[in-house]
């Protein structure tokens, strides 16, 4: 693994980067209990965006883990989850806005708390997306790395504590140039009454395309998804 | 929230608007705050793919993840409040004789059909084509505004292991869902033309739309 970049995102922080075709982004939960809310778009044609419903239905899954692909609305693979020590990433919960954070944690202003102020996932992603010319219309359903929400037979949602341990990581391989926008912020359904988002480490590296075979060959759907992705580069 | 069947006392003959939408057609219409929209699955197990926008600012739209986490339940049914991406209540489901409606399955598209079924399925009609066609003619909406939709009458349960399954048999001829608008909204529907999925018995059918002021 040829490491190109290593960076720690503090709890509450947000950042964005282009993971180029053939590169892989490792996200590591440093302390355990982290949550990373993620939005992705095609870096060269930003109207092409992460489409979680398309990703879920074509792989017959609601959770996301190793072997799964994250699809755009154009039937291409923005990222393939080629390694995952955590086992379950959430597609249901989305990101809180300022009102929801206030309801849960109370007031936490910059005036008093400086950079420990209470941030929210919606605004963090909107700010980061705005830097690339993206707007609230581009903020679609988001993925929450390291979090798990169970669904009972009657549909009741329950947040599962302890899903991710210190050192757990997920590797996102990009078969196309993918703009990844993320924030390390608490999951909206995390019952913890304290505002305490956890830090994560990002490692960007060159990858052997062979690492994506576990995803490409996981099902016939993904074989076709990779064909669609290759055709974008003809 | 467990699904509870709630029957409406509204009579079709008093509706201010009544239209049947054939399978495979889009429908874009305004519904004013306080008005009630009924969507009827005329022949059973038809997917009615639906998006909602604020009439005052169409950038404000239905937000499935906020809606689900606020009700702490995966399925929409009577009592569900549909929230926007700005956190406002858009519509409330006030009657439902089906009992469960999907928010995770999204809409079919030419491109997702190539992934799900076969590369050569690209040229079959799809919900996203309907959405984009309606957006292009209406002028207030564009591809950027096409987000995750509700699939009325579709049953897409999540298993304990996190699997996603497409089940049939929950809707039936004449079942309906009724929504009261909490703000002025634009309703964008694609009456799903999907021919590759057993959830509608490979047979897309008409839906009826009624509005009471």
Automatic annotation (TrEMBL), chain A:
Residues 7-179 form the DUF1989 domain. It comes from the Bacteria. InterPro entries: DUF1989, UAAP1. It holds the Pfam family DUF1989. PANTHER family: RE64534P. This is Urea carboxylase-associated protein 2. It comes from Paraburkholderia caledonica.
Automatic annotation (TrEMBL), chain B:
It comes from the Bacteria. InterPro entries: DUF1989, UAAP2. Residues 20-186 form the DUF1989 domain. This is Urea carboxylase-associated family protein. It comes from Paraburkholderia strydomiana.
């Amino acid at each position: 693994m040829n490491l190109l970049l290593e960076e720690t995102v503090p709890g509450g922080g947000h950042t964005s980067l282009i993971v180029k075709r053939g590169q892989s982004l490792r996200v590591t939960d440093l302390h355990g209990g982290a949550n990373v809310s993620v939005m992705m778009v095609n870096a060269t044609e930003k109207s092409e965006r992460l489409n979680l419903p398309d990703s879920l239905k074509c792989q017959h899954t609601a959770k996301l883990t190793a072997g799964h692909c994250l699809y755009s609305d154009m039937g291409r693979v923005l990222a393939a989850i080629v390694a995952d020590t955590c086992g379950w990433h959430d597609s249901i919960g989305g990101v809180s806005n300022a009102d929801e954070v206030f309801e849960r944690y109370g007031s936490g202003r910059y005036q008093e708390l400086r950079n420990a102020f209470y941030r929210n996932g919606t605004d963090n992603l909107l700010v980061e997306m705005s830097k690339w010319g993206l707007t609230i219309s581009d903020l679609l359903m988001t993925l929450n790395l390291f979090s798990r929400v169970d669904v009972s037979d009657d549909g009741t949602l329950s947040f599962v504590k302890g899903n991710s341990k210190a050192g757990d990581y997920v590797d996102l391989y990009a078969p196309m140039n993918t703009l990844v926008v993320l924030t390390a912020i608490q999951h909206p359904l995390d019952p913890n009454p304290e505002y305490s988002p956890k830090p994560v480490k990002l490692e960007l590296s060159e990858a052997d395309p062979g690492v994506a075979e576990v995803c490409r060959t996981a099902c016939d759907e993904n074989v076709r998804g990779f064909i669609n992705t290759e055709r974008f580069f003809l | 929230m467990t699904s509870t069947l709630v029957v409406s006392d509204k009579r079709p003959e008093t509706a201010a608007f009544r239209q049947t939408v054939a399978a495979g057609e889009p429908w874009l219409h305004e519904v004013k705050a306080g008005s009630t929209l009924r969507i009827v699955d005329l022949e059973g197990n038809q997917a009615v793919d639906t998006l909602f926008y604020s009439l005052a600012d169409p950038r404000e739209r239905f937000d499935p993840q906020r809606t689900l986490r606020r009700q702490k339940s995966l399925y929409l049914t009577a009592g569900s409040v549909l929230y926007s991406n700005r956190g406002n209540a858009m519509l409330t489901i006030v009657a439902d004789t089906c009992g469960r409606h999907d928010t995770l399955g999204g809409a079919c598209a030419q491109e997702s059909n190539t992934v799900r079924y076969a590369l050569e399925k690209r040229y079959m009609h799809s919900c996203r084509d309907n959405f984009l066609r309606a957006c292009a003619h209406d002028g207030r909406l564009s591809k950027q505004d096409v987000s995750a939709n509700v699939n009325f009458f579709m049953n897409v349960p999540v298993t304990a292991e996190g699997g996603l399954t497409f089940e049939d048999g929950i809707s039936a001829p004449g079942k309906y869902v009724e929504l009261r608008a909490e703000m002025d909204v634009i309703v964008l529907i694609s009456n799903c033309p999907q021919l590759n999925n057993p959830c509608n018995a490979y047979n897309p059918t008409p839906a009826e739309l009624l509005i009471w002021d």
